Glutamine ABC transporter ATP-binding protein (Secundilactobacillus pentosiphilus), 247 residues
Amino acid sequence: MNEKIKVKVHNLIKTFGDNQVLKGINLEVHDNEVVVVIGPSGSGKSTFLRNLNRLEAPTSGSIVIDDMDIADPKANINKIRENIGMVFQHFNLFSNLSVSENIMLAPVELKKASKEKAAAQAKKLLAQVGLESKYNATVQSLSGGQQQRVAIARALAMNPDVMLFDEPTSALDPEMVGDVLAVMKQLAKQGMTMIVVTHEMGFAKEVADRVVFVEDGNIQEQGTPDEIFNHPKDPRLQSFLDKVLNV
């Protein structure tokens, strides 16, 4: 694994009113590493991910990505976000734009790419996610799984250094999940640095370099898929796996 640290989170705390959702998270993610975050609903996983590109502002602590602390209020967050792709549970596509227009929007508007260049890239990305024939399609004509693959292509259009996935398959019908996970597996093989919050334990076992178990706003345990799934130490992790794996 590449030893360069891409993301370094130190003592990250996030409170909403009296509710402390993140209680001092420390995590380092290396270049080209795939880190999968698991844990029960309400444990703080999605809040943690949203802090990583400042969709939520940290209450305290630091988040350093490519040597820039995005928790610093003076940080140019829009510039930093250009290098961080994010794929959400719900696809957040613009329904008034075609598939290709959704993918081209950010490169043209933010990176000032020419429309020709952006169009060529959109074609290439749609081929990468298996949707080459949907270039001119409307968003409404796509299935949920296809929309999520377009959302991944849209995030990739900015050539991000890091991809964040927030439960990208949880809103999908079961038969559509495999297509989205296949695209994510391909990205992992290509060396994309990825932080993935998911309930898909099979994906975590197969693709993760490291699995991080979050419970009650803390990282309770982390390790290789083999360590986490076959030799869990923390009683809360053991209990969680018993429930989700139906052991």
Observations:
- Residues 93-159 form one domain.
- The first strand starts at residue 5 and ends at 16.
